[in-house]
Amino acid sequence: MKYKLMAVDVDGTLLDSKKNLTPETIKAIREAVQSGLIFTICTGRPIQGVEPLIDQLGLDLPFITYNGAMIVMGKSRKILYARTMQGEDAKAVFELGNRLQTTIVLWVDNKLYVKPLGHNAAAYSDLSRTEALPIEDLDALIAQGVTKVLFYDKVETIRHYEQTVGPFVPKTVNYCTSQPFLLEFFDQEVSKANALARLSAYYGFTKDEVIAIGDGQNDLSMIEYAGLGVAMANAEETIKQQADYVTLSNDENGVAHVIKEFIL
Predict the structure, then answer these.
(1) Residue 13 needs a FRET pair 20 to 30 A away by CA distance; which of 44, 50, 148, 230 works?
(2) Residue 63, strand partner residues
(3) What is the rounded distance in angstroms from the CA atom of residue 245 to the CA atom of residue 223?
(4) The CATH number, out of the four listed (3.40.50.620, 3.40.720.10, 3.20.20.70, 3.40.50.1000), of the domain defined by the range 5-82+190-262
(5) What is the model's pLDDT at position 219?
(6) CA dist list (Å): 240 to 114, 150, 231, 246, 259
(7) Mean pLDDT, all residues of the chain
(8) pLDDT digits (tens, 9 = 90+) for 103-139
(9) Does residue 74 contact residue 58 with C-beta atoms inside 8 Å?
């Protein structure tokens, strides 16, 4: 088998436009894993946010979570890799969010902390399938290690933040949108590509033995890293231009198509 590891984004890639994992895709993934492929799911979500996928697939797969800040086994919850933000960086981003008067989300030890608690906090809690807790002692949370900070706001507000916050963000922090209403901040060493490289090394694979599939800007690093970088037909044009191959859309079982073309 030429390709031994496949990394796949969730929204807009693995799931269709109705947020469903189709039977055809499930069948293809199971057959690929049975043939020896290591299949990993890459997401900005925490492991709690992909529990339905774990249940549907019925496999103990490695998950690249928090956009690459943590690699964890889906069923056993064994952590293979974790990278938190520097304390002063997390505090600087939190204070920036305070000045912008946006909803601020902190992920610490797979727990969700939000300021303020309100409509946005409740919506993000539902999305991540995790209870939202109040931020009462910021320094104590920072001391535990902040995996990432998010701003949750209206789409147009997040678009504005993405274009204007750069001068106020520490140089050791990377940021990107994972959803149109979410701007995420994490350590500069964190990316889907870096996590994929670590997972490849864990299994003893080279990048030439890796396929990465995605549709958005936060997938670009792993698409460029992989031996075969794949864009979905529904991906942004800039992603398609950087990809080695363009598969069918997420409503046409594009991931299953790649498995059939290159694995089975």
Answers:
(1) 148
(2) 41, 72
(3) 10
(4) 3.40.50.1000
(5) 92
(6) 35, 27, 5, 7, 18
(7) 95
(8) 999 999 999 999 999 999 999 999 888 999 999 999 9
(9) no
